[in-house]
Design a protein that fits this description.
40% helix, two-stranded antiparallel ribbon, mainly alpha, Arc Repressor Mutant, subunit A, 3 helices
Length: 80
């Protein structure tokens, strides 16, 4: 697989509805490889247009928020 590089001309533009893998990686501050693993694990919603994949940032953020809320551990501050 070809290694994707983030270059300034590829960064998401304001108001853009769909993001590429590279753009999503930049927004989430993770590697493109991490985005690919999140797709494979169905951790983030993805839209398929033929062989292309695109993401709606609002959908990705909502899914990540839901995951963090359900997977978070409740700590008892009295134990600290």
């Amino acid at each position: 697989m070809k290694k994707a590089k983030v270059i300034p001309s590829e960064l998401p533009k304001p108001g853009r509805k769909y993001l590429t893998r590279v753009e999503l990686a930049w927004v989430l501050n993770v590697s493109v490889r991490k985005v690919d693993s999140m797709i494979a694990a169905q951790e983030i919603p993805v839209l398929h247009f033929g062989k292309m994949v695109r993401f709606r940032l609002a959908d990705v953020e909502r899914r990540l928020d839901e995951t963090m809320l359900t997977d978070s551990v409740n700590y008892d501050v009295s134990d600290l």
